[in-house]
Amino acid sequence: MGRLSALFDPETVAVVGATDREGAVGRAILENLRDGFDGEVVPINPSRETVLGLECYEDATSAPPIDLAVVVVPPDIVIEAIRDVADAGTENVVVITAGFSETGGEGAERERRLREIAAEHDLNVVGPNSLGIMATENGMNATFGPEDAREGSISFMSQSGAFITAVLDWANEQGIGFRDVVSLGNKTVLDETDFVREWGSDPNTDVIIGYLEDIDDGQGFLEAAREVTADTPIVLVKSGRTDAGAQAASSHTGAIAGSERAYEAGLEQAGVLRARSVQELFDSARALAGLPEPESDGVAVVTNAGGPGVLTTDAVGDSTLEMASFADETIDRLAAAMPDEANVYNPIDAIGDADVERFGEALEIALEDPNVGSAVVVAAPTAVLSYDDLAETVIEKLETHDTPVVTCLMGGKRARDAEATLRESGIPNYFDPSRAVSGLNALARFRDIRERTADEPATFDVDRERAHEILARTKRRDDNRLGVESMELLEAYGIPTPRSEIVDDPDRAREVAESIEGDVVMKIVSPDISHKSDIGGVRVGVSDADVADTYEDVVARARNYQPDATIVGVQIQEMLDLEASTETIVGMNRDPQFGPLVLFGLGGIFVEILEDTSVRVAPFGEAEAREMVDEIQAAPLLRGARGREPADIDGVVETIQRLSQLVTDFPSILELDINPLVAGPDGVQAIDLRLTVDPDDLDTTDP
Q1: How far apart are CA 126 and CA 122, in angstroms?
Q2: How many C-beta neighbours within 10 Å does residue 61 have?
Q3: Residues 141 and 68: beta-carbon distance below 8 Å
């Protein structure tokens, strides 16, 4: 166990603010502890001598030694109460009381003081504004909820106390048990990362689940989750999806990425299974808590009903699993064992008069097939089929083959006793075949997570000092944006760029163009104009003779379009052969929770139209960068679809990694777009650049 073990396994729990007043939270918590907790319960209230038959103490210093203090006093005396328990030597505190940062300025100040006291005394504080915590092994229900949790191996955290009370009511009816339960509250001191680390080190926690509305320290959470999911699955429901953050962002990358995609990418990289609903959360948790991992993705379906069998097959098709293709020997054995009317291919339809013996034989043969990694038993009630006996048969086959099997015993009361029997052996039963497949899918996904090798970020030889100098230009400007005039930033990090120069008069434009072989590309350079091509600010294939006139034209168009725009000049750039190339985008938007969110996708003018992109939280290594390329729908273009010569995929992958290193090295970079990054057979070239920098943060960055 970790540093929070005493929080869940105290010998003495004090209720600070205990009372016998009907309807009071302090009474509810005391009653829950008194009626179930294995240890000693200590009421603290200076106005009482006894509470609910228990000796009451004036303060923590006069009480017996306290391992855990549950604080439920009015908000204006919470700080005093916490200081008292800290002075008494208590290290673990749960603050039930509301009235902190969720209520405005005065509450926020109170929460700041609570944080300071916790730091001063090295306290482990849950809350404030928390329902409380539970630990079923010792019967500790230090909450004011109406339900005790059943004992089990799932540890559960939630930012919503109401969600916990609703879940426990439902879980008790479903026979689902928990090890520890935590209402996170305002997360002033302890947050989701602390509990992931704690439960990851707990041998009696088989699965960690959670309902989260936000993650305070995204990078810290990802680091902890990566370590924990090497052994213990984490399944989360994350609420609060919104497009508002994406709409407010100024770059292409920011507009496409947004905070929700940061959560999606970050949790995936950390090995966390993301549930889309509460139902999926528990369907996954039940399978992960009791079943072995499948050796392969092949699923066998055994049923006595054609319709449910087809539904199950459809559900497998919608998952990452696949219907197992039976070996010839398996089909021959099934044909010999089943009636002539039965279907011996997958799904196996043992037909409506199948009894337990026929089900068991079909399941046995299926599980012995080398292509089967898991199985679903789907049964409709009939007069010749005993669900109770079928449950015993399924348990026997699972124990014999150590292959995960889930059941779908369709029906109501008829299935209840059998369901309880299966549950005792760790086999979940689902009414809906699609939910049964979802449970198996979670097992397969977690197997893949555990088998992943560590993808360590590459460290390239770069010129950080030069990059710092370029970024520092924002200190001398009226705004914090940089553009193509800062292409040397990419060169400092080894990202290829075509030959170019920014000029501020037509004569110099002609001189530069004449020094570049062939026709050139000319672009207006302005931090205020994002879509240069839309206003005629980009000209391709300009001959030396036309450069001076084109210079005047693009500047005039820019001034007409936006008279107050800052015009840095015009970029004269070597023209690349784009016929055999693909325009891509590589960019970054700094997410407030997770940090640098790197994006790759189809670029040029299509980036915001098609939104064919993939994202990762930096830093990451080559495997993640390569997956980013593979994930976009336009990947076949890069690989040489329809006779095209393949692009330099390795060059693209390396560029993504170099950008990951750049934005990790410089937290002052808030947003960045390389659009387009032209990928051709002979390599990649960054054609255009836009970025936004926080100059104040740059001061703290060591070049």
Answers
A1: 13
A2: 12
A3: no
* Alpha-helical regions (H) of 144-299: 161-174, 192-200, 218-228, 244-248, 252-256, 258-270, 278-290
Give me the pLDDT at residue 647, please.
Answer: 93
**613 touches 600 (CB < 8 A):** yes
Cβ atoms 145, 132 nearer than 8 A: yes
Which residue, 54, 103, 97, is CA-closest to 79? 97
Residue numbers of the chain with a pLDDT score lower than 70: 1, 240-258, 604-610, 699-703
- For the purposes of burial, counting CB atoms within 10 Å of the CB of 535, is it exposed (0-12), middle (13-18) or buried (19 or more)? middle
Residue 696 CB burial class (10 angstroms; 0-12, 13-18, ≥19): exposed
| Of residues 9, 224, 90, the one with CA closest to residue 1 | 9
- Cβ–Cβ under 8 Å, residues 373 and 297: yes
For residue 140, the SS3 value is: strand
For residues 694 and 590, give the distance between their C-alpha atoms in angstroms, rounded to a whole number: 11
Three-state DSSP at 111 gives: helix
The CA-CA-CA angle for residues 644, 649, 655, to 5°, reads 135
Q: Which amino acid is at 652?
A: V
Residues paired with 686 in a beta bridge: 677
Long-range CB contact pairs, 389-395, < 8 A, 24+: 389/356, 390/356, 390/359, 390/360, 390/418, 391/418, 391/419, 391/421, 391/422, 392/421, 393/356, 393/359, 393/360, 393/363, 394/363, 394/422, 394/427, 395/421, 395/422, 395/425, 395/427
Measured CA to CA, the distance from residue 602 to residue 616 in angstroms comes to 16
CA 700 from chain centre, in angstroms, equals 29
Residue type at position 191: D
Q: Torsions phi, psi of 416, nearest 5?
A: -65, -50
* 412-422 confidence digits (pLDDT tens): 889 999 999 99
User: What's the confidence (pLDDT) of residue 606?
Assistant: 62
Question: What pTM was computed for the model?
Answer: 0.90
Say which residues have a Cβ less than 8 Å from residue 695's Cβ, sequence separation at least 6: 472, 474, 475, 480, 668
Q: Give the residue carrying structure tokens 């003779």.
A: 545
Strand pairing category for 40-44 and 500-503 = unpaired
- Asked if 111 and 100 touch (Cβ cutoff 8 Å), the reply is yes
Q: Could you give the CA distance from residue 39 to residue 6 in angstroms, rounded to a whole number?
A: 12
Q: Are 128 and 78 in contact (CB under 8 A)?
A: yes
Taken in order 330, 333, 336, 339, is the CA torsion positive or negative?
negative
Token pair of 110, please? Answer: 């109170």
Residue 475 near residue 409, CB atoms below 8 Å:
no
